[in-house]
Every structure is written in C-alpha cells, then in structure tokens.
C-alpha cells in the first residue's frame, strides 16, 4: 500500500477521533465531568440493591447521566420487565448506547440526549446516578422545586447534600466507595 492510500484510510479515522474528543470536551465543560463509567463492583452492588428492593410491578428506572452505558445497559438487560430511561448530554457516548440498545434489542430502554435537569422526572420510580457534587446539589434542587417523590434513589459515590440515606453500602475496593440508598425520598 502506498502513502496516498494510507493517508486516505487514516484521515477519516483521525476526523472521527477528533469529533469524539470535541463531543466529550464540550459535554465535560457543560457538566463539569467527563462521562465516567461506574466500576464493576459499583454496578454489581447497584444491580443487587435494586434486585432486593424492586417490587414485581412495572417500574420506571432512570439513569441520570448514562455515560458510556456501563449501568443503563445492564439495567435494561437485568430488568426487562421495567422501563429504563437514560439521559446523557455527550453526543458520542449517547450514540454508542443507542447502537448497543439496537444491537441487543433492548425494547425497554429509552435513551435521551438531553439534560435530566430540564426533563420531567415525575414518572420515575427509581433513579440511579453517578454525579459530581455540584450535579447532586442541582438534582436535589430539582427534586425540591418539582416536589418529586422518589420511591428509590441510588447514588454511586456522592450523596445528596441535605437528605439522609437509609443505607450506605461501602464497596470492597481501594476507596471504600459508598453507594447511597434513599428510600421513599420526599421533598
């Protein structure tokens, strides 16, 4: 293969990588954090906490900031009887999740590329999140302003500022990462 052909193949790849980086950079500037995956231990703990607490009736589960899909995809797979909704601002991770959703035929999964703070969360019976402290504060303000009652909220690593969780599970990892479990959260 000559140099001209090699350049022909690498230029589209370079442009794609550049677009991905720009997408992530813009969403990072907007939200204060890049899309961060939950660790395997955190994901397993959250799934177990949900399995232990969810009633048999259909629930609406919302992932507030679904990132690369490390939690929203397993939620939809593990709980096919429930509706699962994911919110993500970053274009490329959202597109990657959308692709996986269709490849795995996850009909119970809906993915939105928008800010959950500007969305109606009134139908959510379960919320899961891995958000930075300023986003947790903003979530708390939204819950109060909208007078939302959330039967179950699980937060990986960061707590809501003024609500007390019923349970805190510390993962067996280097940081003893907390998973906060809020039940019957009323504002």
List descriptors.
187 residues, alpha/beta, Rossmann fold, 5 helices, 41% helix, 20% strand, methyltransferase
Describe the structure.
By secondary structure, the chain is α/β, with parallel strands linked by helices. The chain has a single domain (about 40-185), classed as Rossmann fold (3-Layer(aba) Sandwich), CATH 3.40.50.150. About 40% of the residues lie in helices and about 20% in strands. The protein is built from five helices and seven strands; from the N terminus they run ααβαβαββαβββ. The protein has helices spanning about 5-30, 40-55, 70-80, 90-105, 135-145, and strands at about 60-65, 85, 110, 125-130, 150-155, 165-170, 180-185. The chain has a seven-stranded mixed β-sheet, covered by helices on one side. Strand 1, helix 3 and strand 2 (about 85) form a beta-alpha-beta unit.
First CA to last CA: what distance?
65 Å
Percent helix among the residues? 40-55%
Order of helices and strands: HHEHEHEEHEEE
Q: In CATH's first tier, which class applies?
A: Alpha Beta
Radius of gyration: 18 Å
What is the name of the CATH superfamily? Answer: Vaccinia Virus protein VP39
Arithmetic mean pLDDT = 89
> What is the count of helical runs?
5
Write down the CATH topology: Rossmann fold
In total, the number of domains comes to 1
In the CATH hierarchy, what is the architecture at level 2? 3-Layer(aba) Sandwich
Low-confidence stretches: none
The rough form would be described as globular
**Count of beta strands:** 7
| Physical arrangement of strands within the biggest beta sheet | 3-2-1-4-5-7-6
């Amino acid at each position: 293969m000559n140099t001209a052909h090699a350049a022909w193949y690498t230029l589209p790849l370079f442009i794609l990588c550049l677009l991905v980086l720009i997408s992530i950079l813009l969403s990072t500037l907007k939200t204060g954090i890049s899309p961060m995956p939950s660790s395997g231990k955190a994901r397993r703990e959250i799934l177990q906490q949900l399995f232990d607490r969810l009633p048999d009736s259909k629930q609406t589960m919302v992932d507030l900031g679904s990132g690369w899909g490390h939690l929203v995809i397993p939620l939809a797979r593990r709980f096919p009887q429930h509706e699962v909704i994911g919110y993500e601002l970053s274009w490329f991770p959202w597109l990657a999740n959308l692709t996986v959703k269709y490849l795995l035929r996850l009909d119970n999964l809906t993915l939105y590329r928008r800010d959950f703070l500007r969305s109606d969360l009134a139908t959510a019976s379960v919320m899961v999140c891995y958000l930075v402290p300023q986003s947790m504060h903003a979530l708390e303000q939204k819950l109060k302003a909208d007078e939302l009652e959330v039967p179950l909220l699980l937060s990986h690593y960061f707590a809501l500022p003024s609500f007390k969780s019923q349970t805190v599970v510390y993962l067996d990892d280097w940081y003893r990462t907390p998973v906060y479990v809020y039940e019957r959260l009323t504002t």
